[in-house]
Amino acid sequence: MKHEIIEIAPRTWCLSEFKLVNCYLVEGDTYACLIDTGCGIGNLKEVVLSITTKPLIVLLTHAHPDHDGGIYQFKDCPIYLNSDDDQVRDFKLMFKNFRKEYIESRGPIRFPNNYKQLLELVPNPLPNDDYDYIDLKRYTQIDLGNRILEVIPTPGHTKGSVSFLDL
């Protein structure tokens, strides 16, 4: 079982975590950035490194576990999150079984033939999901080298939700 990789634009990939959630890899001339890290099922870092060798930064759209659950694989990278999601991040640390519950609630529909095999990809022992981050300020521009992403606030789903505009 592997993550599905789809190049959706030049140097921009959608990385599907077993049809459960998507992450995006965006590459500039100098840096690459991973937008969200999925639930942390399987080895996303291996997938990212198979696509790019550029230094990596992680941008989180918000702090729900289906978007930052794989962060444990990327703690050696700069991680950015809007600080308005700090309470969401702290609250979610109480839910240690979210990966299993996510698979069991969505797997039968999105991966009907063998979703139970996904349970074998849940990390054991469970990783430390806590992380330090750099505050992602609204309208900040992130220069990846001849490719700039601008932080656009999109609160609603969470107070600190953001989107990224590829300028």
Structure characteristics:
single chain; 167 residues; alpha/beta; 19% helix
Provide an overview of this structure.
This protein is an alpha/beta fold and 167 residues long. The chain is 19% helix and 28% strand. The protein has 4 helices and 10 strands.
Number of helices: 4
What do the pLDDT scores average to? 93
Instruction: Report the C-alpha radius of gyration, rounded.
Output: 15 Å
Number of strands: 10
The major β-sheet equals: 7 strands, mixed
What's the SSE pattern?
Answer: EEEEHEHEHHEEEE
Write the layout of secondary structure elements.
Layout: E1 4-9, E2 12-17, E3 21-27, E4 32-35, H1 44-51, E5 56-59, H2 65-68, E6 79-81, H3 86-92, H4 98-110, E7 134-135, E8 141-143, E9 148-153, E10 162-166
Parallel strand pairs: 4-5, 5-6, 6-7
Antiparallel strand pairs: 1-2, 2-3, 3-4, 8-9, 9-10
